[in-house]
Amino acid sequence: MGNWIPDDPTMVAQVLSISASYAPPPTAGFVSPMRWGIESEVVERFLAAGVRGDRIAFDRETFTFEFPGSPAALVSEFRKYYGPTMNAFEAAESQGRAAELQSKLESLFVAHNRSPREDLTSIGATYLRVTVSL
């Protein structure tokens, strides 16, 4: 399985961090899916499920978002289709801060974009690949 890594300097972890600063706090008892990006927690969960530790392997991989448009247009796609960003914008709109959130995300996407073209966005994001052999 592939899991985003909390506090990673690449794009997705930063999107989630920015989004979380606008969204309401999670409900009591909520465990963030980002915890699956922490090797020690993944090992703990699989050990509790009866998987031997020597059967769990990790690799850090990079997924590259290739988008046929500007970084600002990609932010718009995240705003429409990516749950954490959708929630953050909903909360930001109710606080009159949607433009501020849009600006922060656009700055992030521009900073991470590696495409030399204005009409193409290419942004790498690191994730933790977990392989369990049974």
Order of helices and strands: EHHEHHHE
User: Strand count, sense and closure of the main sheet?
Assistant: 3 strands, antiparallel
User: Into how many domains do the coordinates divide?
Assistant: 1
> What's the helix count?
5
- The percent range for helix content is 40-55%
Structural class: alpha+beta
Please give the number of β-strands: 3
Largest sheet, spatial ordering of strands: 1-3-2
**How widely separated are the two ends?**
14 Å
pLDDT < 50 stretches = none
Please compute the radius of gyration using only Cα atoms: 17 Å
Overall mean confidence score, pLDDT: 95
Short structural summary:
The protein has one domain (2-22, 55-132). Helix content is 43%, strand content 20%.
Structure description:
The mean pLDDT is 95. Helix 3 (71-81) crosses helix 4. Strands 1-3-2 form a 3-stranded antiparallel sheet. It has one domain. By secondary structure, it is of the alpha+beta class. Helices cover 43% and strands 20% of the residues. 22% of the residues are buried. It is built from 5 helices and 3 strands, in the order βααβαααβ.
